[in-house]
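Bench log. Compound arrived from synthesis this morning; before running ITC I wanted a structural hypothesis for how LWBT4IAB sits in the protein. Inputs:
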Amino acid sequence: MPFLDLPDHRLHWCEEGDPRGAPVVFAHGLGTRLELWEEVVAALPQKFRLIRFDLRGHGGSEGPPAPWSMGALVRDAEALMDHLALRDCVFVGHSLGGMIAQALAVKRLDLVRALVLCGTATKIGTAETWAARAELTRAGGMEAVAAAELQRWFPRFAQKSRPAEVARDMLLSMKDESYLAACGAIAGTDFYATTARLTLPALVLAGANDGATPPDMLRETSDLMAGADFVLLRGAGHLASLDRPEDFARELGAFLDRIGHAFHEPAPRDPMGGCGEGCGCGSDHDHDHDHNHNHNHHAPHAGCGHSH
Ligand SMILES: O=C(O)CC1=CCC(=O)O1
C-alpha cells in the first residue's frame, strides 16, 4: 500500500490503469474513503492512469491534530500530485473532494485540466447545520452520525442496500476527532466567487435522489462555470459512484472522450521557473487558497491575484 509521508501525517493512495496514460485523480467526500471509487475505476478504460487517495483522517490516511482548514486539505492533494509528478489531470471530486477539486483548479491549473464534480457545491450547509453535526458527533459518536447520514445519502428504498452497508462501514471506520476536524474545514468554506471564474472543461453529476447535496445545488454549481456539462443520474443518491457505478463510469468515460483526455499532451513545466503555479509570475509566495488567491488562467482578465 503506497503512502506519502508529509510533515505531520501520511496519506494513503493507490494507482491503477496505464502508468503512462493520461491521469485521472479521484478524491472522495466526508466520512468515506478511496473504496468509494472502486467500481467506477474498474469500469473505466484502463488506458488512463487512475489515482485515488484517502483524505487526511479517512481510510488509510492519518489525521493530524485539529483544526484543519480547507487550504490544508487542498495542500495534501497538491503534495500527492506533485510527488507523483502529475500534470494536466482530470480531477474527480465527490462532496468534500469536490470542494478540494474547485480550489485546486483555481490554485494549480497546471495540475488540473478538467473537473468532474459530484455531490458537491461551492458551499455545503451553514454554520448552524455544521454546529449541529458537531454536537451529534460529540454526543453519539460515529454510530449516531452514520444513522443520520444514511438517511440523507440514500433514498428510503435504498437504505438497507449493499451500498448503504458499505457507506455505513466507511463512516464507522473513522475517528470522531477526524470527522469533527473535516466538518470544521467544510463549515468555513464558500467557493462561490472563485468557482464562478472557472472556465476549464467540467462535468457536474447530480444524484437525482441525493438528500445531502440535492440536484438543485449541483445545477447551481454547474451554471456558475462557463460551459460545464450537467448530468442528472437517475436512481442515484449522494454516493452516486457507489450506488450507480456503471452510469457514473459511462458519463465520466464519455466526458474523458469528449475532451480528448487520452490524447492530451501535458503542458511542459514553465521554463522560466516562476512560482510553480503555472502563472509565470516568478514569485515564491504562498498560494494558499484560504487567503483568496486566484489562479484561473483560463479567465483572460482575472490576473493571478498575487501581491508581487
Ligand atoms: O455529509 C454530508 O451530509 C454531506 C457532505 C458534505 C461534505 C461532504 O463530503 O459530504
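What the model suggests: The chain has one domain: 3-263. The beta strands are 3-5, 10-17, 23-27, 49-53, 89-94, 112-118, 202-207, 229-233.
ITC booked for Thursday regardless.
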